[in-house]
Each structure stands twice: as C-alpha cells, then as structure tokens.
Amino acid sequence: MAVNYNAKEEADGHPSGVGASGGAGKSRKPDNTAFKQQRLPAWQPILTAGTVLPAFFIIGLIFIPIGIGIFVTSNNIREYEIDYTGTDSSSPCNKCLNVSWNSTPPCTCTINFTLNQPFETNVFMYYGLSNFYQNHRRYVKSRDDSQLNGDNSSLLHPSKECEPYSTSENKPIAPCGAIANSMFNDTLELFRIDNETRIPITLNKKGIAWWTDKNVKFRNPSGNTNNLTALFQGTTKPVNWPKPVYMLDSEADNNGFINEDFIVWMRTAALPTFRKLYRLIERKNNLQPTLQAGKYSLDITYNYPVHSFDGRKRMILSTISWMGGKNPFLGIAYITVGSICFFLGVVLLVIHHKYGNRNTSADIPN
Amino acid sequence: MPLSGFKFGKKKLKEEERYLQANNRDFNLEFEYANNSIKTSKYNFFTFLPLNLFEQFQRIANAYFLFLLILQLIPQVSSLSWFTTVVPLVLVLAVSGVKDAIDDFNRHKSDNHVNNRPVQVLINGRLKDDKWMNIQVGDIIKLENNNFVTADLLLLSSSEPHSLTYIETAELDGETNLKVKQALTVTAELGENLQKLTDFNGEVKCEAPNNKLDKFTGTLTLRGEKFALDNEKMLLRGCTIRNTEWCFGLVIYAGPDTKLMQNCGKTTFKRTSIDRLMNVLVLVIFAFLALMCFILAIGNGIWEHDKGYYFQVYLPWAVGVNSAAYSGFLMFWSYVIILNTVVPISLYVSVEIIRLGNSFYIDWDRKMYYPLNDTPAQARTTTLNEELGQIKYIFSDKTGTLTQNIMAFNKCSINGKSYGDVYDMAGQRTEITEHTEKVDFSYNRLADPKFVFYDHSLVEAVKLDDAATHGFFRLLSLCHTVMPEEKKEGNLVYQAQSPDEGALVTAARNFGFVFRARTPETITVVEMGETKVYELLAILDFNNVRKRMSVIVRSPEGDLTLYCKGADTIVYELLDSSCGSLKEETMEHLNEFAGEGLRTLVVAYKNLQEDYFQEWHKRHHEASTALDGREEKLSELYEEIEKDLMLLGATAIEDKLQDGVPQTIETLTKAHIKIWVLTGDKQETAVNIGYSCNMLHDDMEDVFIIEGNTSEEVLDELRTARKKMNPDSFLDSDDIIKFENPSTKSRILPEEQANGVYGLVINGHSLAYALEGNLELELVRTACLCKVVICCRVTPLQKAQVVELVKKYKKAVTLAIGDGANDVSMIKTAHIGVGISGQEGMQAVLSSDFSFAQFRYLQRLLLVHGRWSYIRMCKFLRYFFYKNFAFTLVHFWYGFFSGFSAQTVYDQWFITLYNLVYTSLPVLGMSLFDQDVDDRWSMQFPHLYEPGQQNLYFNKIEFVKCVLHGIYSSLILFFIPYGAMYDTVRSDGKAIADYQSFALMAQTCLLIVVSVQIGLDTAYWTAVNQFFIWGSLSVYFAIIFTMYSDGMYLIFTASFPFIGTARNTLSQPNVWLVIFLSIILCVLPVVGGRFLKSQLMPTISDKVLRKIRAAKKQPPPPLPKTRLRRTSTRRSGYAFSHQHGFGALIMSGRNMRPKLPFTTTGMFSPNSEKNKHK
Is residue B423 helix, strand or coil? Predict the structure, then answer.
C-alpha cells in the first residue's frame, strides 16, 4: 500500500509574533500542537491497482492449498454412522420406538454392522441427536450453575430458571432444570464379532468432557462426608431419571455432578443436529488397528424416546485429525474462495488495464 | 452573556403599565418588578438530577430503551439479562448528563460574571459600590465613561453640557456610530449633587416591558408637574457610554424586563439535515425491526405448533402459554429485546461526542485565530458541524463582514491632477504592497499616525504652496460636521458621524490643514502651522435628497466663501460654466476612481459677496425660525446659494475590504457555493463592493437590476431576467402550478441551470414586493439561477425572510454571516449562523453558531472543517449502521435454527459491551482524526466540497447499502461457523459444536471483521487509530479470557457461565481457519467493489486524490498569489452613510463644551519648537 508519512511542515498563515503581543500567558492563541492542528503524522493507505490486485492473487494462492489440505485431511478421517432410531420398520430397534422413560424392563435391541476399513488410531464413539433443540432459549437457561458447582444453598433452593423442574414432591431436584431432566440415557455397547463370538470392546467413559467442566464448572456439594448419598440428602432425582444423581456411576470420581456423561450432556449444543462424545476406544498396541475391518454389533439399551418429536438417534464411530472431526465444508469453502479470489484478480486486472488509465485527472480544474 | 434558553420570570399577572418612584425601594417593591439579575441557567445543584433525567427521557431513543428495560422485567418475554440494557443506558445517560452539567455550569458562570459586574448606586445620599444583580427598579445609579449600561435607565443628568450623553449601541442594533441622548432640563439640573439626587422623588409611569428598541413612552411626575418621556431620554442595557465622563440614570426596567433581554427571544433549536435523516432512518429501522420480529414470531408460532408441541416431553411450554400463537406473540417481544441493537443506543451519544470533538478543532485552529485582537474561532453550537460541509448558499452582510467599515482617503484629483497612485522608475503604475514607501508626515506634529498615504507628489504639492491644493484641503478641513476632542495637547480625536467624513478631515489634517476646534460660531484650523480661526456662518446640512453639504465661512482675512462637497452627479449640475475642461478631466479621474471601487465625492467652492450673503443670511434666519414649511423654505434657500460653484477636485475613499475577501469569495464560488449579499446599504455602494470583492465582474453575461416600484414591474423584471438566463424554464411552467397547489407536499424546487454567469441586484422596495405571496416563487427561481445576488436596503426582517425563502423552496443548506445586531434575525434563521467577532459582546456573535474574526476564515471553516466533519460524520454513520446490522442480524439467522426461541448467538456480556467497549473507540478515532486530503489540498481543490452539497456520502441509498452490507456480513458470520461446526468435534474428540463455543466463535469473527472494516474505512491512520483498533481487540481478548476464567466463575457463578470456553475453543486450529475465512469473505468484496468503483466510476475525490498523489512526488505547489486589482469601467456612486447631518446640533452649540483647551497653540508653537530641538 502507498506508504507516505506526511510530516507536514508548520504552515502557519499568520505573521508570527503579532499574536504574542498580549503576553504569552494571556494570549488566546490556540496551541500549536499536531493534535490540535490536526496534523498528526499518519499513514494514508489508498486502494490502488498496485495493492489490490496482488492481494487477490496472494489470497487465492494461499487459500487453494490450505483448502486442499483441509479437504484431504477431512477425507482421511474414518467415520461410521448408524441411525438406530428405529423409525424404519425393518430396523431391529423398531420395537423400541415408542418406549418411554422408566419403562421396565428396558427395551434393548442389537444392530449388526460391518466396517470395511480398519480404524487405525484412537476411535471416538459418539451419540448423535437430530431435530433436538438443545439450543432453545428456555431449554438453555433451564439449569442452575450454582447448584452444579456444589453450592449447598442452591442445592436445596434451586434457581427459578429451573422451573418447572425445580421441585418434585416438595423436594428440590438435584440436578434441577430441563437440561438435566432430559439427559440422554441410552446405553451403547460395542462388540466385535469374530467367528460368531462377540468380543466386547473396552469403552472408556472417562476423559470425554472438557477439563474445565470436569474440574471447575461441575462440583459435588461439599460437606463433612464423602458419602454422596448423604451430601444429596434432602433432594430428589429429576423426574425422568430412573435413579438419583449420586447413583450415576459406581466410581466416586465419576459420580454425582461430576459424572462425565452428565457433564457432556449439560454442555448444550449450538444446533439442533449434534453429536456428543460417548466413549473412547483407545488403541491398545501399535501392531493392530483399534478397530479392525470386520463385523461388529451394537447393543442398545433403548431408553430415550425421540420419536414423538421426530428426533433421530445415531451412533457414530470416528477417528480424529488435527482439525477435529470429519467436516468437508471448510476445505471446500477454502478452495472455492481461493479460486474465486484468483478469478476476480484476473477480472480486475483486465478491467484495470482497460479502464484504469482512461480516467485521467485532467478534468479537475485547478 | 449567553441569552439562549432564557426564560422570562414567572409573572403571575401580565403587567399593563409600569409605575415607579425614584429612590423609593419600599414603594417599588410592592409591584414585584424583576430585579437586575439574569438567569440563563437551567438547573441548580438539587434540581439537576430529576430535571435532567426527565429531559433525557423525553428523547425518543432513551424512552425506547426504558421501554426495553421494562420489557425485560417481564419473565415470559425477557430474553436477555437486565444488564444488557441497563449498562449502556446508564452510561449514555451519564455522558449526556455530564455534558448538560458542564453546559449549565458555564451558564452559571457567565450569569455570575454579568450579575456581579460593579456599579455605583445611590443609597441614602451616598454612592455605594454594588453588583448589577442587586439593582432594583427605581434606583439611581451612576455610570462612567466606557461603562456598560446596567439596565434600562432614564437619563437624569450627565457631565456634558445640556446633559448630553453619547452612547454606542453596537450591541443593540449593530450601528457603530455614536448616538446622543439628552436628559430633561428639569432632571439635568440635578447634576452630580448627591443631595439633590437623593431628594429626587419623581414618579414615572410608563409602558410595560416590551421589545421595541426605538420606542418608549412614559411620563415623569415631579412636584406635581408632568413631563413627557420618550426614547431620547433612555439609556438601554447593552449600550456603552462614550465621551461622557459620568451620568446618572433612574432604573426603569431591570434584568429580564430590559429591552435587550426582551429582544433576544428564544433561540430556535437548530438541527442538521443528517439529524433529520437519522430520525427518519431510526423510524425505518423500527419498522424493519418490527418486520423481523414479526417474521420470527410467525416462525415461532409455526415451530411451536409443529415441533415445540411435541418436544414438550423434554421442554414443556412456559407457564401460562397454552397455544403456539400465544407463544409467538410473546416471542415477538422477546425478539424486540434481542434485536434492539439495530437501533443503537450509543448512536446519539457517539454523534454528540464526534460533533463536540470536531467543534474543539475549530476552537483550536490557529489558522482561524486573529492575532490583532486575540480572537480565536469559536464553535458556539457544537451540534451542527457536519452541516458546514454541505453549505450551498451563503448570505452575507456587507458592512463589517465583507468590509472593515474603515474609510481610507485613498486618492484625490486636484485641479485636474490625480494623486494617490504609485509609479515605479519606469513610470509604470505599481501595486501597493506592504513594502511600498509611505509618506512621512513626521514634520506635522498634529498628524494622525495611523493615516497612510503613498503618493509623495501630493505632499510636495502642498509644500510648494500650490493654491489649488491648499484650497482643496482647506475645504476638507472646514466643510464637515466632525467634533474634535483634544484631551491632551496634540492628541486630536475626531468624532465623526460617518466614517467617510472622518477620513476626509483626517486626510486634511495630515496634509497640514488641521481641524483643531470648533465653537458654534468658529472653526479653528491650523493651516501649515499657522492657527487660523474661521467664522462659521452657516451649515447647509446634508440630507438624502440634497446629497451634498456646504458651509459658509469667513476667513481671518475677511473673505466669505462657500465650501461644498457632494455626490458628483449633483455637484456637477451646480458648477460654474467656466470650469469646463477641468470638469472633463475630473470626470475622467472620477471614472477611474469608481472603477477601482472607491467612493467618490466632488468638492467645490464659491466666493460670496458680502452684501448678497447678508441678505441671504437674513432670509435664512427667517426661514429657520419659520413655523410651517421650514424644511422646504430652507432647501430653496440652499439651492439658491449653492450654484455657480468652482470645481476644486474630487476625493476617493476606499471602503476597505476585510483581508482576503476577494480570494475567499473566489474560492467559495469555485466550490459551487452561491453567495448572496444582503445589506442595508445603498444600491451603488453594494454594487461597488460586489465588484471590488470579485463577486460581480465584467465578464458576467449580465447583471440584472430589479428596482420596480410595483409588484407588476417587479414580476416583469424578474421574468425578463429569467427568460434571458434560461428560456427553457418557462416550458416546465406546470411545475409552478404544481407548487402553487397547497396540497402538494413537496415544495422543493428542482435545480435549474442558467446558460451563463449572471448577477442579480434587488432593491429594498422591490424586494418587499418580491417577498409577497405569489412573487416569492418567481424571486427564488430567478435568483437561484444567478451566481451572485445582491439585495440592497434590506431591513433585518427582510434578511431573515430571504433566508427563509431559500430554505423553503430549495433543498439546500444555508449559512448566514454577519457582525451586527441587524444580522441576528438571519443568523438565527439560517441553518448555520456565523458571527464576526472581535468587537466585545456583539449580539450577532451571541446568537451565532460559529464565530471568528475575519470573513476570510469562512473558507477554512467550510472547506476544511466543514468538509472533514461531514466526511467523518458520514463515515461514522455508515460504519455504525453497518456494524450494528452485522451484529444483530446474526440473531435473526440463528432464530431459524433454534426454534425461533429468541436465543442469542453471543454471550450476554458481549452484547452488553459490543457497542460500548469493543467497537466504540476505533470508530470514534476514525471520526475524530480521519481526513482524506489535508487542509492545503482541501483549499486547493474547492471542488472537493461538492459531494457534501449534494449529500452524496450519507443518504437513504447509502443507508440501504450499509444495511445490505450488514446483512451480507451477518450471513457470512453465521453460516461460515455453522457450516464449519455442523456435527463436528474438536481435535481431541470433545465438544466444539456446543452453544458456548459457537457463540465465542461467532463473536470473535464479528469483532475481527468489524475491526478490519474500520481499518478499511480509515483513510488517515494516526498512532491513535492504531492504538484504538489494536487496543479494542486486545481488550476483547483480555476480557473474554478474564470473564471465562475459573476465578470469575467461582466468585460469580451465575453471571459467567462461559467458563473455559475461550481456552477450549481458541486453541483449535479450525476455529482460526473459520475466523480467517469469515474475514476474507466479509472484507474482500468490499475491497474489490471499492477498487472497481474507483476504476470505472471515479468520484471527484478519487480524481483529486490521484492528482494529489502525483503532485506529492513533486515539491508542494506555491501558495496562491494575490491577484492584481482588477480595473474596470464601473461607475461608482457617492456615499455618506448617514441620513441627516449634525449641522443643527453644531450651530446650536448644544454639544459644545464650555471651555476649549489648547485652541491657541499652533503646531509650531514655542513649546513644540523646543520639543523638536531636543
């Protein structure tokens, strides 16, 4: 860009000295500072052909390789997705379609699938929901962060935001609110079918939530005892839950408010279609891929009704790259924008050559 | 004193008649007349808060935010926390409140200054120093020379003979000549005898306070006798006592009842066209907001019906909501709250701050500072700046604005020889510059040191005892009505009624004919060092019909001579036939003088026979004592004796223009600003000034003169003129019919083009007809075709009417500039009023919006400050609307993906701080520092001013462009993060498509995009701009990392739920890729578009910028040279600016002092000889 620091010389139109007649202190003559006289040194960039055209070409040249890189990376990610909602009558889970909360015995179904390619690196297991408005305003605010942070008074007196899920049977609900109440509670189990034998795959349930959520945002109520049952004394479970919050898991560091499944659920999604991390499948040794190609079966304990509002449930197995999960959008967008920039650069160049010099400044009267 | 916003005191009863008694406070107090303190301030310490808040909530924007605040308190509707509205509202209220408080404090200060001025008041027989505010009706006060008159007074007595008192009324009516007031004889006797004054118990009965400056009726009852009182006995507040040692006055009206205060009226609140446009736009935005909310409410109804109803398993409807329609209704209001940021609350405050800042630049400008009387320019109204960049019409006063009101004896023609020009060695006439050698008058001890003359040959002629030259100056020293004043010996001061006369007598004085003293019967002149006493026999006074004056004197030698000076046209008729050839030569010189724009007079004399004169004198005495037809008889006698005169020569007086007036007018004309001169002066004078300051020139196609005496004549003249200028303008005559139809709302006349450069001169009485009803349209159409319009003999009211006329029919911004009280009306009427300051406490300045000392500063005010202010304001508005639309509309798009639930995209803190913290300073920096070209180039290319006049930089179309740009950006800002985050995860497999991460990403994109955009809009990158932009971004990141930190969450759990989002999100490479992509997508089209526009359709500024860049490679251009004076063949007129002479007063001797000091000491007295030899 045109760089010109204009250090303008003092160009005062008045004969100096006359104004000082009243004495330096008395004169009302304004100060001669660059700021007051609007002479601050400045850089005045101007859009010229010399700056604009290279910018277009350079952006084009940068964007296209980035886009290709992202696109390739995204395409290299292995992903396998099963919709197990069961709306299709042929689906094994069709029988569970009209399940309700707390139905006993729970409805279970099994879906078999085949992975054609092995998953080499760590595999992440997600559940995905569609048409589920976790971003609805009333839903988003229907929680009490103080309660979840272990504040004892909020535990017994949940915020009004939690209505209508703040009390049940005259007891405060812990955790209160619509988000907690609607917590996803399907259980997914994965088996590799090797010669008709089902080999369970170890699913790690810890390390799926943000560190800050697990360690700062969510805390169990404090008290003299480590016994969660005692600490949650005086509260009741959310309406939809089969069991209270202190019985979410057997391990103490994954129970109560700091249960990671719960924390993941409480981090509400931005869009009505979302996926949430459910389990981790770690790579055991370097010789074998984490998930070999072959047959697998997914056991589902189908507790979570979504059919009434046309919701969909998915199970996703995915590997991860440096830029996250599979998403071709960014790569395509970069390639497109880069190409357009390059093309526009050419167009502008042509226009500049044809018209740019036509407009001389001769028609400005001096 | 600031008179604006003045409220007249609370009067329970309307005063019918004023009744008061001198020296009787108890009696006068019964009537509860206002005392002399004035109050222009609005608040005091206790009433400030409630009153100010009440006023602020009367503004629609503030009321709107109050309404929003109330909406937010309804739980079903509330979609945002209360602080998102309260914080900005409190801040806005606080900023405005502080500004009001400072303003009011200043008003208090100036009130106090005026109220605490000292004055001497007579209490219990003793003079006591008191403050102005303690003066009450009925008090007797003493004023001394050069004092301001404290209140409206009845003059009782003064130090001068016949209790005359001289006052200057400049502040009141703009006239700078002295006026004489005279007390009643019965009160004059009181003198300065304090006892008598204390015993004075006259009762005054007079009219109630009113605003008529020239009228007063009342009666004074003293010891049972009644005396009529009129305006001649009144000293009005605002006047200044001059040439009078002391005087006593009785307070009749005080404080708010004085005529000055009653006259100042209420100041009309001026608003700029951008203000008006902004109000319209705000309404449009409201409509747009309502439309968006309506769409979203409908969407919500449908969504709740189709999906929300079934989703109730997880999210039951709110309490009381039982149908989708009702939910939609509530959501309408929720969205009103969320989308309220399209009507930015900080808009008005920012606009005020920007205007204030730009006003300070005007105050600070050294190039508009006038060192001679230490006057800087002043922006008295801080809310009109950008309108200075849009001026199309300038209405200028003449005297004191274009001209200095200083008359300089410049040239003369004596006995056929012209003096006053300077010739160089080669005999060529040269331009007089600062370096030209002046004539040295030091040989003459009585010379006026300020008098300047360059032609040495005239002094030589005087020294050589040339008879004609001596006669010429003798005439000038005798034939006048000037009063001399010599307080110290040799220090002569002339009190002239008109500056022309003063200039002539001063010239004679310097050339050795010193008018020293006068009595009713004699005139003492020191002629070449020799004191001579002439016997003054008669003054044949000046009046407008005669256009000449004569004196008849008897010289010490006993010769009887009549000396006459007057307008050439008149005097030439009276000349003796013997001076034929001299007449022609002198006429040639007169033409030459007139061509240079000088005011000319012809002087002649006549020797009288003793017996004829005695006989004439007798008849003159009879006539002057005649009871009826005195005037006619006298003028007959005058005409009888003023004939067969011998021509002596002619004088030429320069009505000095202010410095740089012609150049300024030329520059302003180049900027396509039309200049109209509205003057009270006569036609000849006005036209002359028009020529000498380059408004009219000889290469104009024509200068039309409208001087019809009936409305038909005026109409005819106007039509003829217009037909010549633009014959086509009669083809679209249906336009006129349309305009005459009152039902048509649009009264704006289209722009018409003349086929050449024309000028128009309108006379006062023609103007009166032209301003009436159906003619005014003709006047506007004709006048606006002309480049220059000069209206002469215009009354103050007509000045305002003319301005009003142009305001009414032309969509143009007008500026009125003047210096006197007669300009106040037009200054108040025009969009912008400019006062010429310098003389202390002028009324024009007080009612003006901007003031400075010299007319030439106008070009800098308009072309530099005005243009910059306009560009800055437009850039600010365009950017401001853009950034708020880009910010707000993201919520709109999000509505489609969040069940139309009025969920915000951003963190609530971001919404609170966006306008106030994150984006306010960069845009403020731009609107305070931006300049596309610097001041020198702005002046060099006046064409750069045109876009402002045509309102190109911010109008409805530009606004729509900003909105579309904002909508585009908001689409990018929503859908790029949407696409990139859809169903995806972080690089460690954990959540990133959660609401909080999405919010953070969107708001970071937005902030960086608008920061880059402001960078793109900034044409002038100072260190401050850099600091503001980078600073705002850093502050943003600092704040989010702080607000989303563990500590903040643990302390204020409920307020900062976004804990950890910044850390977890901004560490992701794909988030930065998204941000980068959004920036490029938002900014590149703008860059490309602007580049294309500058290539394909370059605006005038683009071209100038290109030219400047080319020129910058070369050394800076030389400063524009001052043009040589034009010579033309214009014929000038004669000018005495007053109506009636002082002759009668002089002959009666009423204004003479009893003793005349120093009358006998001549210039070469022994005393002065001694001094000379020292």
Answer: strand
